[in-house]
Design goal:
heterodimer; A: 378 residues; alpha+beta; six-stranded mixed beta sheet; five-stranded antiparallel beta sheet; 25% helix; 33% strand; B: 556 residues; mainly alpha; two-stranded antiparallel sheet; 23 helices; 73% helix; globular; disordered C terminus
């Protein structure tokens, strides 16, 4: 188990990481996700021991390792550029960590063989590392880091140097391998898709702060704040006023008069009251649209009653329509609002397809979760 | 290493260099400013009032400028020829064109003497061919100096231009052609401006080498005086203050040139923006006839460039006194080599040179690794700029300046002032070689350290390797090839060093170059040539050994 307690790092006047606390249970795969410069790599380097934290503690298996140099932490690391030793062959690279621990020759050979077998490179022992493809190099780096059987494995953007097709495949294999070994692992990535595919839980960082930790589903459906919601998946950020607040949530009014219901803001210091200005964040798939002149017709949701439906509707004009296979993506222009993104499953778009320039009405899908936040997205 | 350890190391290096590099030069400056009454510019007034001194200063400058122009005129077209046109034997010949580098300063001069001197092969040949009573020319004065300079220094322009052409993205020239520019316009408006940094670098090297050149003006100069020979003469005559003033003038001229050229170079860095394979210049296809002609020309050229080496070798086989008026020597024996290797006295200079060059190079490597380690460390470190400056300083100062500085400073026993009597001991020559090669070896080490990915050290650490183990198993094996190349170059330079040696040697510590000179003075040309051949052979061996270490070891 890995614990970070109120970890902080300051470079001169810059606070790279602030008060970061995180627990990673044994065997969990966790991603540190965030835009570049958010402090995720610094955090990883503090765990590895390459950077000394200015405050806080790193604990591995209950032991405080904050003051230990990297050599004595026993933490495995896969570097972004792999950092394979160019003057050593594949087997020598993998054996490096075992040699440093004084592993006897026979055992060393056996474990190097096992490590290479695990990453499907059994026949490559005497190859020069420069002769290998990017994917093979990545696997050598993984085998090298795993060979000494460290309690924790750190991976710094491990897939960013691979091409798209290979990356997709490697993701699945990597996750399967790490789960099979059962090693506690931390990935650093700026790619949300990658984080979701690889890890059990994701820790979102922004501006040196940990914003939220949770399963991919939690992050997507219950974002802690506008930053997390903005960074994960797509969303529309709409300026609204609170009309009414109660135990169930809020009724918000959009520019143009439409009123939509949203959950209480999770990031507000106090309970919101009528008249407060908030930011309503809506996923594109949580919105429904229809031609201004059409009725809902076959739509089961039409049963809500015409008046209630009308009060909840926002008038807009289709700026563009893009067919993207499984989905159709609409960009809408509505008065007083930024561009509005709405996605419709292609199967539902069908004959109801709306052309560019047509007037439409937009409202939240029934049961959709709308989130209001006090802070703005950057 | 801890941050504190690095600071201590930096401090120690700066202190050492302040003492050995800057301090002696300041002593010379102080000497030049001393008057009977105290301090003043009296010596400088004496320098400027003398016609001979003013002439020497002017000669030093114009001969260096002329050397730059002449070297460029030979080296740049040759580089284009060998980079742009395909003809049989191109690769081999291109390697051979750099041969003049393999000629130690004094040996080259000696070879020219045997070739073009009054009794040289070519001179005699032409005299015999035309039935002249007198030699057709005399190898003396500015012309002779320029000839030697151009022959040895065009290699800088050749090598720099060729390297730049190889890096040059041909798509720029293609873009110019597509925009309707003709060949001449493309060359003058696109290609040459993009080569400017390389040409500037070569010009600087040639200028600095030329203004510090001593052997050519010393042997061929005759009445043609330059600053380096003036310094030597003043020191020999015991006018130490005039020697100091001349040394300061020489140092100023070369530092000024350095500053000027670096100003010119600032803001002239072009890097290809092209992606993917930078194939460099594509080879032009030529008609078979032109290709044959080019091959013939290149072979002739290489033959011409090999003449000095061949000459030294030939003369080394001629027994003393056997060659008088004939065009070619009548007898060839190994007598000179026999006496060289048979007599311990004769072999002493070879042993001296090997010992002193080894000591100096060892010191160079230790200093270079320490300095490069400090300089290549990431992050801010106060005093690092000063260290870099002190390391570059010997490069800006001609060998003569350095030698005078050492002779001035280390001829007095004042331990509290950091002065010891080292002149006349075994210490002084290795010290001079060491100081002269500091920039070269440190640059080589620094380049290697900078190319070292810091992630490699971190990877080793994360795998549990101690700092010592990381250094031994990761850092050194990766840094070694570059460092070895620099060390070999330093060793070879020290082995044939002449300029500083002539100002600092004693009979007991005389190096090969000085022995060659004294054999020449004794008119034993054969023996002088044999020393020269030995020197060239040692250099070749060193280069061959170095090229073997260049591929990193992959052994178990």
């Amino acid at each position: 188990m890995l614990e970070l307690q109120a970890l902080g790092k300051r470079f001169g006047a810059v606070e790279a990481v602030r008060e970061l606390s995180l627990e990673v249970p044994a065997g969990e795969l966790l991603s540190l996700l965030g835009p570049s410069g958010c402090g995720k790599t610094t955090t990883l380097r503090m765990v590895a021991g390459f950077e000394a934290p200015t405050s806080g503690q790193v604990r591995i298996g209950g032991r405080d390792v904050t003051a230990l140099p990297p050599q004595r932490r026993g933490v495995g690391m896969v570097f972004q550029n792999y950092a394979l030793f160019p003057h050593l062959d594949v087997a020598q690279n993998v054996a490096f960590g075992l040699e440093a621990r004084g592993t006897p020759r026979g055992e060393l050979r056996r474990r190097v063989g096992e490590a290479l077998e695990r990453v499907d490179l059994a026949g490559y022992t005497a190859r020069k590392v420069q002769e290998l493809s990017g994917g093979q190099q990545q696997r050598v780096a993984l085998a090298r880091a795993l060979a000494p059987e460290p309690p924790v494995l750190l991976l710094d953007e491990p897939l960013s140097n691979l091409d798209t097709v290979l990356r997709e495949r490697t993701r699945t294999e990597l996750r399967a391998l790490l789960k099979r070994i059962g090693i506690t692992s931390i990935f650093v990535t700026h790619d949300q898709e990658e984080a979701f595919a690889l890890s059990d839980r994701v820790a979102v960082m922004y501006a040196g702060r940990l914003q939220q930790v949770g399963t991919p589903e939690q992050l997507y459906h219950e974002p802690a704040n506008a930053l997390v919601m903005g960074f994960i998946g797509q969303s529309n950020a709409l300026p609204v006023h609170v009309v009414h607040a109660d135990g169930d949530g809020l009724l918000c009014e959009l520019p143009g008069g439409a009123r939509w219901r949203a959950g209480a803001p999770r990031d507000a210091a106090r309970a919101p009251a009528a008249g407060d200005a908030l930011r309503l964040m809506v996923r594109p798939e949580a919105l429904r649209l229809r031609r201004a002149d059409a009725t809902y017709g076959t739509d089961a949701e039409a049963g809500q009653g015409a008046d209630a439906g009308r009060a909840a509707e926002l008038a807009a004009v289709v700026a563009s329509r893009r067919f993207a296979g499984a989905l159709v993506q609409y960009r809408l222009a509505a008065e007083g609002l930024p561009e509005l993104l709405v996605t419709v499953p292609a199967a539902h778009d069908g004959d109801a397809a709306v052309a560019e320039g047509e007037r439409v009405r937009v409202r939240p899908a029934s049961g959709a979760r709308l989130h209001a936040f006090a802070e703005h997205t950057p | 290493m801890s941050a504190r350890g690095v600071r201590t190391l930096l401090l120690a290096l700066v202190a050492l260099l302040l003492w050995l590099v800057l301090y002696p030069n300041l002593m010379v400056l102080a000497d030049s400013l001393r008057t009977p009454a105290g301090w003043g510019l009296a010596a400088y007034a004496r320098f400027l009032a003398s016609h001979a001194e003013r002439l020497a200063l002017w000669n030093s400058v114009w001969i260096s400028v002329a050397s730059v122009l002449l070297s460029a005129l030979i080296g740049v077209p040759l580089a284009f020829l060998f980079s742009r046109y395909a003809f049989p034997g191109r690769r081999v010949l291109a390697a051979l064109v750099s041969l003049p580098v393999l000629l130690p300063p004094l040996v080259g001069v000696v070879a020219f003497l045997f070739l073009y001197g009054e009794t040289g092969f070519l001179t005699r040949g032409v005299q015999l061919l035309l039935g002249l009573d007198e030699p057709p020319w005399r190898l003396a004065g500015a012309g002779a100096v320029l000839l030697v300079h151009a022959y040895t220094m065009y290699v800088y322009f050749f090598a720099f231009t060729r390297a730049a052409l190889a890096r040059l993205d041909e798509s720029h020239a293609e873009a110019a052609a597509a925009l309707g520019a003709g060949r001449w316009r493309t060359l003058t408006r696109v290609t040459l401006p993009m080569l400017a940094p390389a040409l500037g670098g070569a010009a600087l090297l040639v200028f600095m080498t030329s203004i510090g050149s001593f052997s050519a003006p010393y042997v061929f100069g005759g009445g043609f005086r330059v600053l380096t020979t003036q310094v030597f003469a003043s020191k020999l005559n015991g006018d130490l203050q005039m020697a100091a003033v001349e040394t300061v003038a020489l140092a100023l001229a070369s530092v000024l040139a350095l500053a000027l050229l670096q100003r010119f170079e600032a803001g002239r860095r072009y890097t290809g923006a092209g992606k993917g394979a930078l194939g460099g210049a594509r080879l032009r296809r030529l008609s078979p006839r032109t290709r044959a002609l080019l091959s013939a020309f290149a072979v002739a050229l290489v033959g011409f460039l090999l003449l000095p080496h061949a000459t030294v070798f030939l003369v080394s086989l001629v027994p003393e006194g056997s060659w008088t008026t004939q065009l070619l020597p009548p007898r060839y024996t190994l007598a000179n080599y026999a006496s060289l290797f048979g007599d311990a006295q004769m072999l002493q200079p070879v042993v001296n040179s090997l010992r002193m060059a080894s000591v100096a190079t060892l010191a160079n490597v230790v200093l270079a690794v320490a300095a490069a380690y400090v300089l290549a460390r990431p992050g801010r470190l106060r005093g690092r700029g000063l260290l870099a400056l002190l390391i570059a300083l010997p490069w800006a100062l001609p060998g003569t300046v350095l030698a005078i500085a050492l002779a001035t400073t280390f001829s007095v026993q004042q331990p509290l002032a950091g002065r010891f009597v080292w002149v006349g001991t075994f210490v002084i020559l290795p010290l001079a070689y060491f100081l002269r090669n500091i920039p070269l070896v440190t640059r080589a080490a620094l380049t290697s350290f900078q190319q070292l990915d810091p992630a490699l050290e971190e990877a080793a650490a994360s795998l549990g390797a101690s700092q010592a183990r990381t250094l031994r198993r990761v850092v050194l094996p990766l840094v070694l090839p570059g460092l070895a190349a620099g060390a070999v170059l330093a060793f070879v330079t020290a082995l044939g060093e002449f300029v500083a040696s002539i100002l600092l040697y004693t009979h007991r510590t005389r190096p090969i170059s000085i022995e060659i000179l004294s054999q020449l003075r004794a008119f034993d040309f054969g023996l002088a040539a044999a020393y020269g051949v030995l020197l060239i052979a040692l250099m070749l061996v060193a280069f061959l050994l170095a090229s073997r270490t260049e591929t990193p070891a992959t052994g178990a």
